[in-house]
Structures are given as structure tokens and as C-alpha cells.
Specification:
With 367 residues, this protein is α/β, with parallel strands linked by helices. 44% of the residues lie in helices and 16% in strands. A 7-stranded parallel β-sheet has the order 3-2-1-4-5-6-7, sandwiched between helices. The chain has a 6-stranded parallel β-sheet with strand order 10-9-8-11-12-13, with helices on both faces. Helix 1 packs across helix 16, helix 3 crosses helix 4 and helix 9 packs across helix 14.
């Protein structure tokens, strides 16, 4: 039976959560489920879905925005969804407020995606909005454990691993990372793709690379992303004398193509809900070096699809990267195993089917 859903994402930026929201909406529609998307009027999500006739431009100006909530309530009454699915915290607040207005009967069930492994805020507003959530869909079991520890009942928490659009990855044309950034021909390249924020751990990665180049002198590190730490990371690169070895080119739209021509993909996070860029890298058949934190071990199997090291440990990170760059046979084995793992367990189709199953279970429990 078709399930009518409204999906809400209020972010302006484009990160993993917005991509997963769009993949979910597209996947549900492909299965015949009527789906509406509510997105920020000036956001990247709306820009990437410009021809969507069921996209409503709406976002709160602040967390408690009754006017925006009233508008959403009108949309809910007109569309009459069975499920209201919020993909970010402000979206949860907006949905919770909207449900306080007059609703069809029965009102839609409220589902919230949780993709970060941060603790829930302990203030009264946070408690009030999350109290109305009927089901939390967590991107990893690690995130679910944090929610339960923060007082969310375990029977309201489920895990649905995020998915990657394997066909989209396969269709992305390779882009020479050497030519794009004028790197020496044949130099081994390590790629990191992440926002430049503290919990992504690039400061430890740069420290680690100072050791890597002592063993692999022609190695290069390319860090793609933008964020508040860009200037301080550039200063760190200069301080370590790594200007020829470490590049911070900022945000790129051709990440998948560049990823296909890098030698190793690295994730240095201190905290990580799951890490969708890891899934992309595995789908591109890249060997992985990553930190053993959050949901990352649910994606990367140590010594099978890559190497895991403790977070904040620059020495261990350097050793793993050096090993991966010098042992080409092992790198090829890890890459092949990662490619198989992502195809069998982390496809977007798998994610959407599991999401629908959670909707069905939730609605069945109400009836």
C-alpha cells in the first residue's frame, strides 16, 4: 500500500544529510509512494531539485517560528500524509509545532532522522520537540545508543544505515586529481572530503602527514571542503613545512570524479555519525584509512575493507596511511572488498526499503 509522506529539511547548505533526504524522496517516489519535500527557499537542496513539482520552499527563521509552523500545518492538511519525516533538528521543531495546529484525524506520525553522534541538547525546548517524535531513524547503531543514553526510549529508536546511489557513482566520469591540482605525475595521493570543522579531525591528519612524507616523500594530501578551520589549517600546513604536500582547495562539485583517481581515501574524524563520504569512496573502489569512532566501524571492517585507527592519534594515522601507500597489493584487496560491501549493504535502494519497512511498522502499531 502506498504511504503518503512529507519530508522536511531546513538547511541552506549541502552536506550528507541533505543528500540522504533527496535520495530518500526520490527512492520513495520510485516505489510509488506519494512524497512531498519541504526545503529551505534559498538552500542548496532546493537548487538541486528545481523541477520538482512537489517541492515546497519553506524554512523557519528561528527554531520556534509559529508562522512557518502554521504554513506547514496548512500543507499537512492539504496533502494528508501518513508520515511527517524531519531530516534535521530545526525540521523536527517545525514539524512538532505544526502538529499543534488543527490536523486531519488521525494526525501523521512524526519520524526524525538522526545522522550525527552529538548528544541531544538538554534544554526544555529540545526535550519538548523530541518528545513528540514517534520514531527516530538513526544512520548508525552508534547514534541510536547515544539517543537511548540521553533518555529516548529504546523502542522509539531504530537503525537504518545511509545509502549511496551506486549508479550515480558509476556514471561520474573520472577527473584526474593530478592534473586538476598540478600534482607531480605518479605522486601517490591521499584524499579527505569533509567540512573543515573540529570534529572532522583534519588537524590530526595534517600532523600525521608530516610523518607520512618522511617515508613516502612524493605523497600528497588533498583535503576537499570548506568551514571555519580553513585558515587555521592553512597555518598548520605552513608551520609543518607541508605547503608542497598538503592542499586545501575548498569545496568542489566534482568530488566523485576526483575520488576515482586518488590512491587512498582517509577520514580523520573525532566524532562521526556514519560517514557517507566513506560509502562514496568504497563505491569508487578506493582503499580506506579511517578512525575507529561513532558509526565508522559499521561501514569499514578493519583489515578487510580498510584500516581503522584510534581518533586523535596522529602517529597511528600516519602508520596506517604509510602502510596503505607502500603495500599496493593490500590496498587493492581492501578496495575490492569495500566495493563489494557497499554494493551488498549500503545501496540507496536498501536504505529506502528499510525506511519504508519502518514506516509500515510504525503505522501498523498505531492501527
Amino acid at each position: 500500500m502506498a504511504i503518503r509522506t512529507i519530508h522536511i529539511d531546513t538547511a541552506r547548505t549541502w552536506r550528507g544529510g541533505q543528500n540522504q533526504a533527496l535520495l530518500t524522496v526520490k527512492g520513495l517516489r520510485a516505489l510509488g509512494h506519494p512524497t512531498m519535500l519541504v526545503a529551505h527557499p534559498d538552500g542548496e537542496l532546493r537548487r538541486r531539485a528545481p523541477q520538482d513539482p512537489d517541492l515546497v520552499p519553506l524554512a523557519p527563521r528561528f527554531e520556534v517560528d509559529f508562522h512557518a509552523a502554521w504554513k506547514l500545518a496548512r500543507i499537512i492538511r492539504a496533502f494528508d500524509p501518513a508520515v511527517l519525516h524531519a531530516h534535521d533538528p530545526h525540521g523536527v521543531a517545525l514539524a512538532a509545532l505544526a502538529l499543534g495546529f488543527r490536523m486531519p484525524w488521525p494526525p501523521p506520525m512524526l519520524v526524525a532522522s538522526r545522522r550525527v553522534d552529538f548528544r541531544l541538547a538538554g534544554n526544555s525546548l529540545s526535550r519538548a520537540k523530541y518528545r513528540q517524535v514517534d520514531r527516530f531513524i538513526c544512520a548508525s547503531a552508534a547514534i541510536g545508543r547515544i539517543l537511548v543514553a540521553d533518555g529516548i526510549p529504546a523502542d522509539r529508536v531504530v537503525t537504518v544505515h545511509e545509502g549511496v546511489d551506486l549508479q550515480h557513482v558509476a556514471d561520474a566520469p573520472p577527473v584526474s586529481i593530478h592534473e586538476t591540482f598540478w600534482l607531480p605525475h605518479g605522486a601517490p595521493v591521499v584524499l579527505n572530503v569533509a567540512a573543515l570543522v573540529p570534529h572532522k579531525g583534519q588537524r590530526y591528519l595534517i600532523d600525521a602527514f608530516a610523518s607520512v612524507v618522511r617515508s613516502v616523500p612524493d605523497a600528497r594530501l588533498v583535503i576537499l571542503g570548506q568551514g571555519e578551520l580553513h585558515q587555521s589549517l592553512e597555518k598548520q600546513v605552513h608551520h609543518r613545512g607541508l605547503e608542497k604536500h598538503v592542499l586545501l582547495p575548498g569545496f568542489r562539485t566534482d568530488v566523485l570524479g576526483l575520488m576515482k583517481t586518488a590512491d587512498v581515501f582517509v577520514m580523520s574524524s573525532v566524532m562521526e555519525g556514519l560517514g557517507t563520504s566513506l560509502l562514496d569512496a568504497m563505491a569508487c573502489a578506493r582503499p580506506i584509512v579511517a578512525t575507529d569512532t561513532g558509526g565508522i566501524p559499521e561501514v569499514v571492517v578493519h583489515d578487510e575493507t580498510g584500516l581503522l585507527v584510534p581518533p586523535r592519534d596522529a602517529d597511528a594515522l600516519a602508520d596506517a596511511l604509510t602502510t596503505m601507500l607502500l603495500d599496493e597489493d593490500a590496498a587493492r584487496r581492501y578496495a575490492a572488498a569495500g566495493y563489494e560491501r557497499v554494493h551488498h549493504r549500503f545501496s540507496v535502494e536498501h536504505m529506502v526499503r528499510n525506511t519504508v519497512a519502518e514506516y509500515e511498522q510504525l503505522l501498523a502499531a498505531r492501527s
